[in-house]
Amino acid sequence: MPHLMIDYSANVEPDVDIGGLCNTLRGVAASIDAFPLAGVKVRAVRVEHYAIADGNPEHGFIDISVRIREGRDMETKQNAAQKIFDAANEFVADVMRRRSLALSLELRDIDAALSPKSGSIRKYLEL
């Protein structure tokens, strides 16, 4: 963990490098000591159908969901959430000055007893 899932309105693609955002957030998450490097995964899903605020089709959104395995204290979680959000906010700051864009983030715990894991990524990491 963590898993970062980015949902974004299709209309932001001309203005936001979504692949670059994914890579930026991956780098930030990988730099957080409380997160094991092998568990960092970032993915983005383009949302075709959405309605925002007053219905103006020019409004856009980027919503980041961060899921982490339970067990970290509140301060650690708040610091991690803020660090990731700050990086995302900086990444889209120029876009937000030019157009209507909502940016949000939520970090939540995953119950370890209900989340089995298996993988070989650690075997292939270059550390």
Describe what you observe in this structure.
The chain is of the alpha/beta class and 127 residues long. It has a single domain (3-124), classed as 2-Layer Sandwich (Macrophage Migration Inhibitory Factor), CATH 3.30.429.10. It has helices spanning 18-31, 74-98, 121-124, and strands spanning 3-9, 41-47, 60-69, 101-110. Strands 2-1-3-4 form a four-stranded mixed beta sheet, with helices on one face. α1 (18-31) packs antiparallel against α2 (74-98). The longest helix has 25 residues, at 74-98. The model has no long low-confidence stretch (mean pLDDT 94).
Radius of gyration: 16 Å
Mean pLDDT rating = 94
Run of helices and strands: EHEEHEH
The total of beta strands comes to: 4
CATH domain topology: Macrophage Migration Inhibitory Factor
Anisotropy-based shape: elongated
